[in-house]
Amino acid sequence: MIRVLLVDDQPLLRSGFRALLDMEDDIEVVGEAADGVAAVTLARRHRPDIALLDIQMPVMDGIEATRRIVADPTLTGVHVVILTNYGLDEYVFDALRAGAAGFLVKDVVPEDFLHAVRVAARGDALLAPSITRRLIDRYVAARPRADAGVGLAGLTGRERETVVLVARGLSIAEIAARLVISPLTAKTHINRAMTKLHARDRAQLVIIAYESGLVAPGGG
């Protein structure tokens, strides 16, 4: 059963999302909230698999709530998915930097919304690397992080190669074919790189690859 926390300051939207989720046999809504403070409290109380958070909310926004959930060592199994009206913008980039596993535009079709919840629950990044790159091309050059390269020295040569290919948008199967290794080995390299770089998912790994200079914004 996938346990979901639903957080949005618009009751009508919450009701619509909940109605969709409640129809599914494998999904359970364990809590609802209208602001970021309540979101963090309920996340600690219920330990959901997925926290669906609106970005712009009163009291505490979704970005700060994401940051607090990600920083809490008791909530390592919670995957944050950001809900936004605006699509690709600086708020989404900030949320990904804060540790969100991805984002959904609120007018997503029901089938895609439910698929996204299940994808995030598996621990996969709910964001195509190509979309992450578009965000990074727009924002990372103007807002570099001095500590972004910390940990790169600890990567093996093959791990660095896989991180670069993830950042360029290749799937695990494509990475395996490019490096002439099995998909399982490719996934192992990616997971080890994520551990060493303290990345929660592949979306975070892509951001680190660009912010560290391992891959250049705008590059192929």
Report the oligomer.
Answer: single chain
Secondary-structure class? alpha/beta
Helix content: 40-55%
Q: Radius of gyration, rounded? A: 17 Å
Q: Report strand %.
A: 5-15%
Amino-to-carboxy terminus distance: 40 Å
Biggest sheet record: 5 strands, parallel
Counting H and I runs of at least 4 residues, what is the number of helices?
10
Number of strands: 5
Strand order across the largest sheet: 2-1-3-4-5
Unreliable residue runs = none
Mean pLDDT, nearest integer?
A: 85
Question: What is the H-and-E element order?
Answer: EHEHEHEHEHHHHHH
Give a written overview of the molecule.
The protein contains ten helices and five strands. The longest helix is centred in the last third of the chain and has 15 residues, at 183-197. Helix 3 (62-71) runs parallel beside helix 4, helix 7 (157-167) crosses helix 9 (183-197) and helix 9 crosses helix 10. The chain is 50% helix and 13% strand. Helix 4 links the parallel strand 4 (79-84) and strand 5 (102-105). It has 220 residues and is an alpha/beta fold. The chain has helices at 11-22, 36-46, 62-71, 90-98, 110-121, 129-139, 157-167, 172-179, 183-197, 202-211, and strands at residues 2-7, 27-33, 50-54, 79-84, 102-105.
